[in-house]
Amino acid sequence: MLIDPRQATLLVVDIQERLIGAMSDPQGMRERARWLLAASAELDVPTVISEQYPKGLGPTLSELKAATPQAEVVQKLHFSCVAADCLPPSLLAREQVIVCGMETHVCVLQTVLGLLALGKQVFVVEDVCDSRTPASKAAGLARMRDAGAQIVTGEMVLFELLGSASHPLFRHISKTYLVGERS
């Protein structure tokens, strides 16, 4: 199955100030997340950002909020966004959810398993997920794949959202986000 821009929402899980420094690749995570959020915003993908206990872990990284100012921010105490019942009806009304965030083996995993239980088609952006250790990230991704989530990369997401080189934004997105190397 491919990502359908008319049915997809981007869910960004817990990329927060006081948590990012503990990740295995904090700088790369910051850059890849900003890249995906900015490109998705240009393609008008509805975006929801979750924050795990922001009083303790701080808010979402400011550069991510700036990259997607239209995003709805929700707060939670449960590790799973589904268990926290914090996802807006706009996200739940769509068939597909593109998920990225931290930590892969905790909040991302539990959220993805909850979305799958709701019957959603879930796409986990492997290169925009991180955990404190590479082993924990790998285990989380494997478990999500085994449960039925599609594991994708940021570039896969963009090309599927574009669908064709005839898309009106193809040249712009290609030049801005897909040309050359990125972290």
From TrEMBL:
CDD domains xrefs: YcaC_related
Molecular-function annotations in GO: hydrolase activity
Alphabetized UniProt keyword annotations: Hydrolase
Transmembrane annotation, as ranges: none
Signal peptide: none
Domain Isochorismatase-like: 9-155
Protein's recorded name: Hydrolase
